[in-house]
Amino acid sequence: MEYLVSTLTFTGITLIGVLGVYMVTGLTGLFSFGQAAFLAIGAYISAVLYKSLGLPLPLAAFVAMLVGLAAGLLVGLPTVRLRRDYISLVTFGFGEAIIAVLNNTANVTGGAMGLSGVPQRTSFSLVLASVIACVAVVISYKNSKYGRQCLALRNDELAAKSMGINVERLKLVTFLIAGVMTSFAGVLYVFYTTYVEPGAFGWVISAEWMIIVFVGGVNSLTGAVVATVLLTGLPEFLRFASEWRIAIYCIIVLLILNFRPSGIFGEHEISLDFLRRLFRKGARTA
Amino acid sequence: MTLQLLINGISLGSVYALIAVGFALIFNILKFSNFSHGGLMSVTAYIGYVASVFFGRYIKALPLFIVILLAAALGGGLLAIVVERVAFRRLRNSNSSVIYYFISSITMGILMENSVTIFASSNFYSYPSFFPTSVIRFGALSVAIPDLLTFLFSGSSLVILLVVLFRTKIGLAIRSTSFDTATAKLMGMDPNRVVAATFFASGVLGGVAGVFLGINYTLYPQLGQLIVKGFVASVIGGLGSISGALIGAVLLGVVEIFLIGLVGAGWSPVVIFVIMLVFLLLRPRGISGVIVQEKA
Amino acid sequence: MSSLEAKGLSKAFGGVKAIDNFSFEVGGHDIVGIIGPNGAGKTTVFNLLTGIYSLDTGQVFLDGKELTGLPQHAITRAGIGRTFQNIRLFRGLSVLENVMTAADPYSDYNLLDVCFFTSRKRRREHAVRDLSRHYLKIVGLEGYEKERPESLPYGLQRKLELARALATNPKVLLLDEPAAGLNPSEVRAFIDLVRAIHDQFQFSIIIIEHRLEVVMELSSKIFVLNFGKLLASGTPAEIVCNKAVTEAYLGQEET
Q1: What is the pLDDT at residue A286?
Q2: At what angle do helices A84-104 and A57-79 cross, to 10 degrees?
Q3: Chain C residue closest to A174 (CA)?
Q4: Which of A79, A230, C108, C121 has the smallest number of Cβ neighbours within 10 A?
């Protein structure tokens, strides 16, 4: 039972990170290798502030998210006005830079040995509440002028600009929100696992999250949620050896790319409309 | 002393140039960022190692080194062709949007890196030393032999590539296709062949780079993430320009050596990242980058 | 009632001078046409006006306010709307959403409203939705709201482009070959539609068209471009009689 709760907790934290990727990659079409770096920022800043400075947890979390915001600005401002590839290249370098910072500030962060002794303050209910809140925000974002304009600019940036959409600002805003949300996930993460080390925040994590979004269907929020549960939760339940888990992800993706590129859910979302149709169909066959 | 550092820097820069140009080739021709290149370099680094073990029984020193380079280069080229076939050909034929190329290349990269992890995980391997770590003196200058050979072999690989690109028929085909695939097709060039040739060339460069990285940094599965140097070089030099990638890479190598002297190897990724940001703010198109004007 | 003034526009690509010192104006409630042989630079003019290309020399004024050098989205919001020659609709969105994205920049709510599900967001969203439906109705796309633009027949896609451009609330509307690919009855319907829209809204229209009947019928003034230069300008009647114009299109008479 405890194993179930722990897996669900971990899945929930991952889901928040994936939601960030959904906003940046799914809605806006940017490929950021830096999401894991925001996770690291959230984790380390909050943990260090809590342990070394004795800040109360909510304040430490808040500051961590602010730092995430600042980092997002630093990386995002010069890059959003450039072509799409730049944000990938720059966020990759950003991720490496953050890991280097963490490795080299051993007196504060524990360096490559990692930071331990963080008390466990994250409960399953906290994660559940956070997930619900974040999903709600992302749904609201998607069904708003922000979401639509993001989809438009992802589709055809030139036409979007010609329709009056401030493409640069929108990219930046989306990137920042995702960064802050992922930093928050980092706070939840470190106060759950009680130990972090820089190597856990490499670009492969960001890439894994992008893969999850893609498997679920890059246009579908529901898909992102379902895919997270499937790809994170299931292997844990089935006690997969972690080395093969990644290889299996990749093979799934390659299969999907070749045979069902729109992902599991494609364009569809679970909506009231969809559920209504589902029930009506079921009623008719009854 | 400074001149010494400069020489070290140029030598390191030549390896970075291999990475950057391998990446830039695909970017120029096929207009997407091939994120699997890092994974390829990880694999070829190990191919080189396997070759060194296998051939190391019969030959030593410089001949062994050359054989390893050839093995890695060939392995890299062939692997790249396979990658293209598996990951990108279908996308190309169905004219998919860029997003699918991103995902596909990332996935292939992770898969390649992961396969190295699975087969070589807990053990640390390293290349045997090929040449004496002595120096050659040029007047007041002493150049370490490894640096000199690195520069020579990387430089030659690049020169060979440029010769192929600019003096052979297939090179011409590659360059024409980079401008306009449709017209190139109409002129009788088989795009599949051209694309395969491009990937082969990119893989060869990646293979040679992999060996040098393996020598310089010892062998570990995540070696491929040094592709970030190629990214930074491309940003500095300008995306879309092969000469830019070259210049950016050499500059990066030189700057990095000086930085290591100043702040230590640990902090250099941070400083390099900052330099990249500064470049983006001041000269976003890089040193010789081209701004492509989108048509309405 | 708005006036757009373009003075001395020039643009070169590499060694080729695409536009050479082209000036024109459209004022009041006019409809103006730009015609010229293929490659004359007509679309380039639109791209310069809307900020897609940067001007080498020249200035653009809308109601006296200078638009030169502003970013694209700012130029659009200042009041220049356009359609594209090669239809550029947003494929991931529905027909209704395509129009909504053009109206969205004017929708007045912020991120806090999004995060906290305020009633302000709900109200604005309703308003945008209704407004967009209204524009769809005007162009005759009522009932197609949930469709995907790719699944629409060509003629309807052109109408959607028009509806989307209307939603940007333009003072001057640029139509780039809006009748291309339409059959004769569709062209007829299209001419009527443009006239209806022009009567209903108070903006000026600039049309690039190859179909001369469209331009002749709708415009009060025509500018003829050839090799990026202004060849002639005048009323439709004058242009039709202009020898230089016919030569540019048909070549010189053999003597």
Answers
A1: 46
A2: 140
A3: C111
A4: C108
Q: For the segment A28-62, what is each residue's pLDDT rounded down to a tens digit?
A: 999 999 999 999 999 999 999 998 888 898 999 99
Instruction: Tell me if chain A has a CB within 8 Å of the CB of C49.
Output: no
- Amino acid, res. C222: I
CA nearest neighbour of B18 among B214, B255, B192: B214
pLDDT tens digits along B104-121: 999 999 999 888 888 777
Give the closest of B118, B231, B267 to A89, CB-based: B231
Structure tokens belonging to residue A144: 């708003």
Does residue B139 sit at the A interface (CB-CB below 8 Å)? no
Domain boundaries, chain A: 2-285
Q: Is C61 on the interface with B (CB under 8 A)?
A: no
Query: Mind listing the pLDDT tens digit for each residue in C67-109?
Result: 999 999 999 999 999 999 999 999 989 999 999 999 999 998 9
Rounded-to-integer distance, Cα A78 and Cα B278, Å: 9
For C125-158, how does the pLDDT look when each residue is reduced to its tens digit (9 = 90+)?
999 999 999 999 999 999 999 999 999 999 999 9
ipTM value: 0.91
- The three-point CA angle C6-C11-C13 to 5° equals 160
Q: Tell me if chain A has a CB within 8 Å of the CB of C77.
A: yes
* pLDDT of B249 strictly over 90: yes
Report chain C residues whose CB lies below 8 A from the CB of A137.
114-115
Residue B294 lies in a domain: no
Choosing among B94, B108, B268, B280, which should be mutated to test the A contact, i.e. which has the most A CBs within 10 A?
Answer: B280
- Specify whether the backbone of A197 is left (phi greater than 0), alpha (psi in -120 to 50) or beta: beta
B293 within some domain: no
**Cβ within 8 Å, pair C121-A167:** no
Mean per-residue pLDDT for A103-114? 86
The pLDDT, as a whole number, for residue B1 is: 67
Q: Least CA distance to A134: which residue of chain C?
A: C115
Which range of residues forms the domain containing residue B262? 2-282
In a domain, B39, yes or no: yes
How many domains would you assign to chain B?
1
- The CB-side HSE value for B144 (13 A sphere, CA atoms) comes to 16
Q: Which tens digits make up the pLDDT trace of A198-216? A: 988 999 899 989 989 988 8
The average pLDDT across C158-185 equals 93
pLDDT tens-digit series, residues C42-65:
999 999 999 999 999 999 999 989
Contact C46 B296 (CB under 8 A): yes
Chain B touched by A214 (CB under 8 Å): yes
Please check whether residue B296 lies inside any domain of the structure: no
For A:66-95, CB contacts with B below 8 A are 74-75, 78-79, 81-86, 88-90, 92-94
Q: How far is CA B44 from the centre of its chain?
A: 11
CATH code, residues A2-285: 1.10.3470
- Is A10 within 8 Å of A123 (Cβ atoms)? no
Separation of alpha carbons C255 and C253, rounded Å: 6
